[in-house]
Amino acid sequence: MSLPNINPISTNSWKKLQEHFKTIKGVEMKNLFAEDSERANKFTINWDDFYVDFSKNRITEETFKLLLELAEEVKLKEAIKSQFSGNIINQTEARAVLHTALRAPKNANFKVNGINVMAEIYDVKQKIEGFTNDVVNGHRIGYTGKTFTDVVNIGIGGSDLGPAMVVDSLQYYKNHLNTHFVSNVDGDHVNEVIKKLNPETTLFVIVSKTFTTQETLSNANTIKDWFLKSANQEAIGKHFVAVSTNVKNVKAFGIDENNIFPMWDWVGGRFSLWSAVGLTISLAVGYNNFENLLQGANKMDDHFKNEDFESNIPVVLALISVWYNNFFKAESEAIIPYSQYLNQFATYLQQGIMESNGKSVDRNGETIDYQTGTIIWGEPGTNSQHAFFQLIHQGTKLIPADFIGFTKSLHGNQDHQDKLISNFLAQTEALLNGKTKEEVVAEGTPKDIIPFKVFQGNKPTNTIFINKLTPESLGKLIAMYEHKIFVQGIIWNIFSYDQFGVELGKQLASKILQEFNSLTINNHDSSTSNLLNHYKNQV
Is 408 designated active site? Predict the structure, then answer.
């Protein structure tokens, strides 16, 4: 069974939403609250340690009903079943999409080509656990007999963003190992990292499915050359491991076959942190915390798979996002976590959401005449309040925002936490209500300044309140957004799991690279030719 193939704008529910939008587009949310004292309760989902309030949105019960009808009409239930059944839903690459299997219990049944993959998943998890414990406990040592103090993850895209974000988010749970991430092919990046390292006590994790990715291999070879200035070829086997499917290339690099952690083609790069790609996470926070991360994601998987749509967190958030993207024509969404630990979270979601749903062709191969993927951006609060919040509050653009907060501080400083959460709550209230001209006048504002201090309000937000930032709650949060991506892709009738859009630039870069050392320049547009010549003349 492949995915349903339904053009959303041809559905009855979409047409009803278009008519409904005409009557509601100018509605003031604060009036909706005034008219219904139960509004917040009606539009809140209280699940496990998550409290999701979506009442501060430009929706009524009728809007919500029609959005739920849209989910039914595009056959979302069948699509969810198809994904979890291991069907080939990544049809353009002829692959299943089963990152959910990586965090499922051992007795689960996830089949690829008729074979349950859980046994091999748990074999790899056992290998990750054993390797992690050996490094953390000092049983695995470097070539001079010293224990490891540093771990360097070498990868790019999903082989970097996911592990880097999780390690950063879970700093509170980190052990004694210092972790570093090398991703950009910019030589200044890798050299800034290695100048801080001792080759005798550093472990390198090269993450590349094909072991041919230009950026990753360039950085890996630069690091290997640096390492071999202090050690011999044999020492590579003690200090380098790989997460890859290309055993031949990894062995040619000098890495022992026992130090290769496998990957699967049914796990997309931007959804791969749950696999051996997360080895650096396990090393940084310990295997038990890595396992808790996976278990949290599995809890969200079960919620998404089994919960009715009206109380299904990823489904509700996806439907609201479609409402703004396709009817209000809002082009971007802000992700505002009120936790400094999550300072890389929006960056991580940029890849997950924009690489997945940045498509202009539907599942029939036809050009789409409606909007698909949203632009994702954001920074932690309260810093962001002193940066771009001015535009959200008083600018001309409609920017729906997710506010993510935790009721408990990890370090227990209640004074700081109270100030943080007071800002967290105040911002969504301010975005809702704004400030009227009458309120500004009542403050004694000079007449010529009054227009500048009026806030329109009516700015939509979702509030995601979580008890505490733990490995488990982080796993739930990441999986929540993964499933939101899936739901949006189903509604928009696109394939969310290929990323051909990243290939063209890579292909052209390879051609241009060859021209740097040649006398001739191939046919380019005049701008590119001039720029290429300028570079060659400067170096």
Answer: no
